[in-house]
Specification:
elongated, 560 residues, 2% helix, Immunoglobulin-like, five-stranded antiparallel β-sheet, four-stranded mixed β-sheet, 47 strands, mainly beta
């Protein structure tokens, strides 16, 4: 086909297919694609704002993290994470909120995408907000001593046990005061005794009275309760009024009832003192009632005893048997539960089978009944008693019924200091030179009279962090697991817990727990006596019985 004809055919086909665009209804070409979005700026720098220099235990604060790009533009909405290097000291939330738990330091780190910033924050103990002195009395006689107690508290009223207290006297020639708050009366007059800690101060006016005259004093006895005609004994001593010590008196001492009653006090009413003490044996009070005894000697002030309750046993007697003791699982460690069986008999010794009520009361001793003072008897003539007392020492328990039966019984020793912990050093280590190391052994001690072995205990070792640093420690093999909490070492506190599935401190034993080595530090204020305190916070028995709480022992050394 000729080429001209081919071009004509191609043109006709192009027009027939609608090719081209003549602006009169022809198709519009597609739009160009959209431009790509701009690239997100990368985080180049993170800055922490609101960083406190230090926080007090219990305080909170909030940090802000600011992220910027390479041009310094602030970037928002980026993934952010927070972390504390020591959450036991200072915690941080996912939004930067801080909460201080314990003294120490912690590094807080914030990370925005892959860029981080950190700040180290110190947590310090709360400052002393108040010091308060307490005293049993504000009068002390010449030559005698009076123990004062000072307690430091923070702004919330919490007791701060680790703060040193400084004692001073406004008139040390009238009344002096030791570093532990023991006041000694020197001459008559007045003095203000002050206790201070961290700039807070309290004072108490103390009056020094004249020296007490020589006097007599009951050493033991008389019993708080006794049956008519029952024999008892007692001992008295001659006391130096100025020092409170026993005087070397070897003269006669007489005894009598303060109430006028003929033929009521039987026995030898005169005793010869030997080296200041006189013993009266085989005394008896023959009539029922409440009586007091008076002892006298030439040149001494007389002494009058506490009341002696004499119960009429003419209607029969109450005896006890099978006395057991135990410590409760809650309450004070000075609480003891006594269980025993009381048997009621008439004057002929026959069991009293008519049910009645047996009442218990303390006839003598430094204890108080807090539960179980009454119990019903049964037709078998017995009553099962469970008497709970608080206090310490031996005591006499008086049992009575409304029908007149009675009995006075000496009870076993109530709760006393039975568990404690202490630091021991070598005999030649009382002087520790600057830079040298003091090696000590931390031990737990339980007396044989404890009702149970110790199965757990919590204690603290306290010292001046300006004078000593804990250089090293090592646990010693024992029956239980010993854990050392070193989080407060910078404050001079080492916390120790002891626990085990069996006894960790058996009754009547001393168990070494750890070896603690302290290095003496240089400092002008460190010279002289330094004290290490070991505070047993609590000790418990196999079922959680509270065997002991809050006992303190002390180890003293000197830095020359």
């Amino acid at each position: 086909m000729p080429s001209a004809l081919l071009r004509l055919v191609a043109l006709l086909l192009f027009v027939a297919c609608g090719g081209g665009s003549d602006g009169n209804g022809g198709p519009t070409p597609p739009p160009p694609p959209p431009p790509p979005p701009p690239a997100q700026a990368a985080v180049a720098r993170v800055v922490l704002n609101g960083v406190p220099e230090r926080l007090v235990v219990g305080a909170s604060a909030t940090l802000q993290a600011v992220a910027t790009d390479a041009n310094g533009n602030v970037l928002t909405g980026r993934a952010t994470s927070w972390r504390s290097s020591n959450a036991d000291v200072l915690s941080v939330s996912s939004t930067g909120n801080l909460l201080a738990f314990a003294p120490g330091t912690a590094q807080i780190t914030v990370t925005v995408e892959s860029v981080s910033a950190s700040a180290t924050i110190a947590v310090v103990p709360p400052p002393v907000a108040r010091v308060r002195i307490t005293a049993p009395t504000q009068v002390v006689n010449e030559g005698r001593t009076l123990a004062l107690t000072a307690v430091a508290t923070d702004s919330s009223g919490r007791t701060l046990t680790d703060r040193p207290i400084t004692w001073s006297s406004s008139a040390p020639s009238i009344a002096s005061v030791s570093s532990t708050g023991l006041v000694t009366g020197l001459v008559q007059g007045e003095a203000f005794i002050a206790a201070s800690s961290e700039g807070q101060r309290d004072s108490l006016r103390i009056t020094v009275g004249p020296a007490l005259p020589p006097s007599l004093e009951f050493v033991n006895g008389p019993p708080g309760g006794v049956q008519p005609g029952r024999l008892f004994s007692l001992r008295v001593r001659a006391v130096d009024g100025r020092t409170g010590t026993t005087m070397p008196y070897d003269g006669p001492v007489s005894i009598a009832l303060t109430q006028s009653a003929a033929n009521t006090l039987l026995g030898s009413t005169t005793a010869q003192a030997v080296r200041g003490e006189a013993q009266f044996d085989s005394l008896a009070i023959m009539q029922s009632g409440s009586w007091q005894l008076r002892v006298a000697a030439s040149g001494f002030e007389a002494a009058v005893s506490q009341p002696v309750i004499v119960s009429n046993s003419g209607n029969g007697a109450i005896t006890i048997s099978t006395v057991t003791t135990e410590r409760p699982t809650s309450g004070s460690a000075s609480t003891t539960v006594y269980r025993f069986t009381a048997t009621l008999r008439d004057v002929n010794g026959a069991l009293i089978t008519t049910p009645t009520t047996v009442r218990a009361q303390v006839a003598r001793g430094n204890v108080h009944i807090v539960a179980g003072a009454t119990s019903p008897s049964t037709a078998s003539g017995t009553a099962t008693m469970q008497v709970t007392v608080t206090g310490t020492g031996t005591f006499d328990l008086l049992l009575t019924t409304p029908e007149g039966q009675s009995g006075v019984h000496a009870m076993p020793t109530a709760s006393s200091v039975g568990v404690q912990a202490g630091l021991q050093r070598a005999a030649g280590d009382s002087v520790v030179a600057v830079g040298s190391t003091l090696s000590t052994t931390l031990s737990g001690i339980a007396v044989p009279s404890l009702p149970f072995d110790v199965h757990s205990a919590v204690l603290e070792v306290n010292w001046s962090p300006d004078a000593f640093v804990l250089a090293s420690d090592s646990l010693l093999a024992g029956a239980g697991t010993v854990t050392l909490n070193r989080s407060a070492l910078t404050q001079g506190i080492l916390r120790v817990t002891i626990a085990g599935s069996s006894a960790v401190i058996a009754r009547g034993t001393t168990v070494p727990l750890a070896t603690l080595r302290f290095r003496a530090l240089d400092g002008d204020g460190n010279r002289g006596i330094q004290r290490f305190q070991v505070i047993l916070l609590e000790a418990r028995g196999p079922a959680g019985q509270l065997l002991q709480e809050r006992t303190t022992t002390e180890l003293q050394v000197r830095i020359p």
